[in-house]
Amino acid sequence: EVPEREIVTLIGANGAGKSTTLRAIAGLVKPASGRIHLQAEDITALSPDRIVSKGITLVPEGRRVFPDLTVLENLKIGAYLRKDSLEDDLAWVYDLFPRLKERSWQAAGTLSGGEQAKVKLCLLAQRPHSFLILDEPTNHLDGLAPLVVKGIFDIIKEINRQGVTILLIEQNANMALHTADTAYVLETGRLTMKGTGRELLSNEAVKKAYLG
Q1: Regarding predicted confidence, which is higher, 77 or 153?
Q2: What is the pTM of this model?
Q3: Rounded to an integer, what distance in angstroms lies between the CA atom of residue 129 and that of residue 99?
């Protein structure tokens, strides 16, 4: 369960099934059994574009920008389902990330790793959305300074404060648990533990397995 307006994190070892779970919710893979519900609606069989139209956004692992397009063009592509004006949303994005406004006409592929991560988060431009799924938002960012990682998590919390429900998986389990309202541990496709982020941070088994 991912309660409305919460940040929920799913932690586990590589191969536990975390990314597969996110991809199943987004309609990119079909589960062999079980059902996926958005509130009271069964969305298990819906195509990815139909799921996006329901307000569910998957921000995939990796930088995943269109490198030869400008920052602004990337943001507009993220909003391809929108029929109304993007001005208010773009203003909000630029308020969160002032550097992106300065570089709106720069090719996204020439940005630093941290700035590309921010462009990827700005798939938010495709609002109205209700449910944001983040697959390892700080992964594949070699040399990313801890301060930049903290800044990305601060933005995730700010997005949540705007009323967006967030499901997060993240290689930095410590930061994910500090950020999450609710946390689950996934082991080889099975949920083995649930609690608040703080509860799992203080759990000795979690500390030993995932927090070093």
Answers
A1: 153
A2: 0.85
A3: 24
